[in-house]
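One-letter codes give the sequence; the integers encode the fold. A sample entry reads:
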Amino acid sequence: MKPLAVITGVGPGTGSALVRRFHAGGYRVAMLARTADRLAELEREAPGAFAVPCDVTDANMLGGALARIEQEAGSPKVLIHNAVGGAFGSFLDIDPAVLERNFQVNVMALLHLARWATPSMEAAGEGALIVTGNTSALRGRARFAGFAPTKAAQRILAESIAREMGPKGVHVAFLMIDAVIDLAWTRARYPEQPDDFFIKPADIADEAWHLAHQPRSAWSFLTEVRPFKETW
């Protein structure tokens, strides 16, 4: 029986690349996104992967989705929280409701996912919970007030879970992406930039795979990835 990987935020970039990488590595993949339409092609491309339409900000909907996954495919060996809520603007201008929604996506959904997945991982004596993040988890830049506080809270929550679950055999890691991800809309936004300005979704997925399969003697918590020309 194939091990199960559960991936949230399966969009056209990192999420899809994660699905492809874990499917290629022999996993059955449960794919969470708000609409099933974007997942239909991936279901055809990766036989055995299955779509689970879900808005992770809705705790009841998320709970139902996770129950369906468990009924259909069992407990996960790997869970990757890739869904992200973001917004940009001055703290004076943003709608406070936007910050609250982003907190639901980035922090509360992680809490619900971890509470669901880690008990079975602990019982199995193994498992990995990976969160994809970015440098907003470490700094609050101007016009990031609707986003950075939630990513910082997400990192701290992940660290708290890691410290509790690591000694129980569950590896929790925060994969920080310090780059512009190579997508159609980012290419359109930065048409003057060369290929090596962007980080490739497939390369992010390879690093997530590596984190999920690190030997116990050398577990990472905070891992950073960036193109070789990135200023940091």
Remarks:
- The chain is about 45% helix and 15% strand.
